[in-house]
Specification:
mainly alpha
Length: about 80
């Protein structure tokens, strides 16, 4: 018989085992579903916020462009009036 030396369990495996055990415990009470739903809602809200920020940027650019065109037209009208 060979004597096997016992090696310590790496911390990554310990973390994985702990997460699996926690998920198994939480699955019994429905908290895992709630957590998953909350994460999905959070991701959706982040995406909506990013889209709103993009839209706001486009609206500001369009307003700036419109104001510039309006100023040019006003200046042209004033030049024609003189």
């Amino acid at each position: 018989m060979n004597a096997r030396t016992q090696q310590p369990i790496p911390s990554a495996i310990k973390g994985l085992l702990a997460a699996t055990a926690a998920a198994a415990l939480l699955a019994g009470c429905g908290l895992a579903d709630t957590t998953t739903t909350a994460a999905a809602v959070g991701a959706s809200e982040v995406q909506q916020a990013q889209q709103a920020k993009t839209t706001l940027g486009r609206v500001k650019q369009q307003l700036d462009a419109d104001q510039k065109i309006d100023a040019q037209q006003r200046q042209a009208a004033e030049s024609d009036a003189q």
